[in-house]
Amino acid sequence: MGINHLKAHDLAVDTEREAALAAAKDHYERRIEALRAELIVVGTSPRRRQRKVSLTDVLKQAKKAGEAVAAATVERDGRVSLTFGDAKPEPTNDLDQWMAKHYAN
Q: Phi/psi zone of residue 78: left (φ > 0), alpha (ψ -120 to 50 degrees), beta?
């Protein structure tokens, strides 16, 4: 065997190895894409039902944060909204307005 024959043989082996590596790379890239697609399908499955927020929990969180709650409203759909500040009721009728005006400090 001559040197040229060995070089040709090494070149053929390198070409075969590169082809095998390219095929393996292509196979694994397709497999990775398939797994990513499965993850997307799994990720869109129904999640656990979220816990319903209670008024007590929200008021405790506001107290923990040091906020004074003036009013709290619970909507029909379960949403809780808080109004922060001093809890001074607004005068709603003429007597309340007159008293608020005359007894204001």
A: left
Instruction: Quote the domain boundaries for residue 37.
Output: 1-47
Does residue 35 sit in the same domain as residue 72? no
Q: Considering its fold, how many domains does the chain have in total?
A: 2
pLDDT at 17 > cutoff 60: yes
Q: Can you tell me the distance from the alpha carbon of 100 to that of 94, in angstroms, rounded to the nearest whole number?
A: 10
The answer to whether 59 touches 72, Cβ cutoff 8 Å, is yes
pTM: 0.39
Cα–Cα–Cα angle for 81, 85, 88, rounded to 5 degrees: 105
Q: Which residue has the tokens 């894409």?
A: 33
More confident residue, 16 or 47: 16
